[in-house]
């Protein structure tokens, strides 16, 4: 049969053009040799040994968000009309762009985690594993994506979920339920293990994952060779997903700028790049990728030639900035970041060369608010207003919390320093987490989205101000 050339170029290895190879290349459990971007070669030396699976829908869109002509809408009756988010940016002549990694893979795989899983599960398959064990919060996007991706490639998923309801679920006074991400966890047959936040804090995620792996090796014939994945998929292998993502962004910039104009002043550039960080892997990939692609340690990507590197802002949704700097340094070391000592070390600086490079590459902001997965009223107001103005839903745990903090705290406290700038926000997905916030959102939704009854037969006696709409049939 005939194979479209576009499909061949998209999916097939360069040395194979047969129909059978095309079929194999479309299978999610077939790994492909991974070639790092030229700008990362020799600078990140611990390359993924087992290639990469094709699980995500890539490239994800890069959207420009209009900041003018937004209709003013009241969020609640008590406060009346408030100053809208995009109008605030327009007043400062700020251009906002969003990298839509919420669109990586549908409901099952969507979000940033699938980019990491392409590398992690390639390693699991290469090592002959039969199952996967990972860990996260009760509404973990990472666990949901891992469970679905594991089933796609023939591995059984085992998920450790941290929940305050662990004892009540065990005692049959409560049940794990089917809300949001948990529904998808269960739809693909995940075995779920619960632990309390206290147990998670005292033992640590690594010991819990190792413990379940040992349990499976002793007691489960079908899962005798489990592959452990750390919280968030954040290790030296998984973080390559966002080296690849940055290269994707660079190619998009090159395509846009080459196609639109050769005039420097009309080229698309970014002054700031903003993203959430929770377990640190995505932030590490973006920070290293952006810094290297802009030529911090040698030749960068051609699309960045002659351009200053944007300032990177990682907004922590848990823990504190120092924790993230240390975590990102550890991950950068796992990836084999090679930094010239003469450039990043002096006799008065005891910080390692890698840590200094990380700290110079990204600013981490303290944006956790009430805590991980806990939302303030102000954060929820921001999320609902942003969706009203843009049609883009931000999740309350990561992207919503991160953009809220950046706009209201970072930009809000020093607006003039951002005037006339171009900001890229990297949306990392997580919309299924909105379901758990339904009761908290209910009051806001009543004033944002009204519900009216059609009086199809003219029998209900509608009056001004009622929720009955009379129509002529």
Spatial order of strands in the largest sheet: 1-2-10-7-8-9
N-end to C-end Cα span = 53 Å
State the total count of DSSP E strands.
Answer: 12
Give the low-confidence spans.
Answer: 1-17, 74-81
- How much of the sequence is in beta strands? 5-15%
- How many individual helices? 18
The helix-strand sequence is HHEHEHHEHEHHEHHEHEHEHHHEHHEHEE
- Shape descriptor reads globular
Cα-based radius of gyration, to the nearest Å: 24 Å
Task: Summarize the biggest pleated sheet.
Answer: 6 strands, mixed
Percent of residues in helical segments? 25-40%
What is the overall pLDDT average?
Answer: 90
Q: Which class of secondary structure composition applies to the elements? A: alpha/beta
């Amino acid at each position: 049969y005939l194979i479209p050339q576009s499909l061949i170029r998209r999916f097939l290895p360069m040395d194979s053009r047969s129909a059978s190879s095309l079929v194999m290349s479309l299978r999610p459990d077939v790994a492909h040799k991974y070639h790092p971007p030229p700008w990362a070669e020799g600078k990140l030396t611990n390359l993924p040994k087992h290639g990469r699976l094709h699980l995500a829908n890539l490239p994800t869109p890069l959207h420009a968000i209009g900041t003018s002509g937004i209709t003013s809408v009241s969020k609640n009756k008590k406060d009346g009309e408030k100053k809208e988010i995009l109008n605030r940016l327009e007043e400062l002549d700020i251009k906002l762009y969003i990298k839509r990694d919420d669109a990586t893979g549908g409901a099952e795989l969507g979000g940033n985690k699938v980019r990491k899983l392409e590398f992690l599960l390639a390693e699991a398959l290469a090592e002959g594993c039969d199952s996967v064990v990972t860990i996260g919060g009760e509404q973990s996007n990472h666990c949901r994506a891992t469970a679905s991706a594991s089933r796609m490639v023939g591995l059984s998923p085992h998920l450790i979920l941290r929940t305050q309801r662990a004892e009540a679920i065990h005692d049959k006074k409560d049940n794990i339920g089917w809300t949001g991400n948990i529904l998808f966890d269960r739809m693909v047959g995940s075995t779920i293990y619960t632990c309390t936040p206290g147990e998670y804090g005292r033992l640590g995620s690594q010991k819990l994952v190792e413990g379940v792996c040992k349990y499976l090796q002793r007691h489960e014939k079908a899962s005798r060779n489990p592959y452990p994945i750390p919280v968030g998929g954040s290790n030296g292998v998984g973080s390559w997903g966002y080296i690849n993502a940055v290269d994707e962004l660079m190619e998009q910039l090159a395509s846009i700028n080459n196609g639109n104009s050769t005039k420097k002043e009309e080229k698309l550039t970014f002054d700031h790049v903003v993203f959430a960080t929770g377990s640190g892997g995505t932030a590490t990939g973006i920070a290293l990728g952006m810094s290297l692609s802009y030529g911090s340690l040698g030749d960068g990507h051609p699309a960045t030639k002659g351009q200053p590197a944007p300032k990177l802002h990682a907004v922590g949704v848990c823990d504190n900035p120092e924790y993230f700097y240390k975590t990102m340094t550890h991950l950068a070391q796992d990836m084999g970041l090679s930094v010239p000592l003469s450039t990043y070390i002096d006799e008065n600086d005891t910080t390692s060369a890698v840590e200094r490079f990380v700290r110079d590459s990204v600013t981490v902001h303290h944006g956790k608010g009430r805590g991980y997965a806990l939302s303030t009223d102000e954060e929820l107001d921001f999320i609902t207003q942003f969706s009203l103005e843009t049609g883009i839903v931000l999740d309350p745990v990561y992207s919503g919390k991160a953009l809220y903090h950046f706009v209201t705290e970072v930009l809000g406290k020093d607006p003039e320093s951002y005037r006339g700038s171009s900001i890229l926000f990297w949306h990392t997905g997580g919309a299924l987490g909105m379901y758990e916030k339904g009761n908290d959102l209910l009051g806001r939704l009543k004033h944002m989205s009204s519900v009216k009854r059609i009086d199809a037969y003219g029998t209900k006696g509608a009056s001004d101000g009622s929720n009955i709409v009379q129509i002529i049939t």
